[in-house]
């Protein structure tokens, strides 16, 4: 029987994922502000639809996964937030709850007397990573097409497209 392991490296990468997730949000807001300042309202609308749509889809999937698990909460945080978990997902906070739940599960399993099998922590981390991957794909693939379209229409890269680094 294979036993899944959740190493300290996994915890480190999961911990680094939360600030990077927040950094992505800041960069998306800056891109939207730049589109607004340049009066590129159609591009701004497309960008907002992509950003909001991908976030709503990820939150919906997260909520559905909690629902399909019949709300079997593995961590104290999830158990505490169980009555308002749906509301938190409506306010786009479900991914943050999953991040914190994985970190809580790792911390309680890193003790000499683990609270639950390591497999549970691994599966929680896999759920989080799959949600982040899906959101990244839903958001970034169309965003690349949008930015390439802007570059082709302008005829030169600019700060709005993030291509001024080339």
UniProtKB/TrEMBL annotation:
<protein>
    <recommendedName>
        <fullName>XK-related protein</fullName>
    </recommendedName>
</protein>
<comment type="similarity">
    <text>Belongs to the XK family.</text>
</comment>
<feature type="transmembrane region" description="Helical">
    <location>
        <begin position="40"/>
        <end position="60"/>
    </location>
</feature>
<keyword id="KW-1003">Cell membrane</keyword>
<dbReference type="InterPro" id="IPR050895">
    <property type="entry name" value="XK-related_scramblase"/>
</dbReference>
<keyword id="KW-0472">Membrane</keyword>
<keyword id="KW-1133">Transmembrane helix</keyword>
<feature type="transmembrane region" description="Helical">
    <location>
        <begin position="12"/>
        <end position="33"/>
    </location>
</feature>
<dbReference type="InterPro" id="IPR018629">
    <property type="entry name" value="XK-rel"/>
</dbReference>
<dbReference type="Pfam" id="PF09815">
    <property type="entry name" value="XK-related"/>
</dbReference>
<keyword id="KW-0812">Transmembrane</keyword>
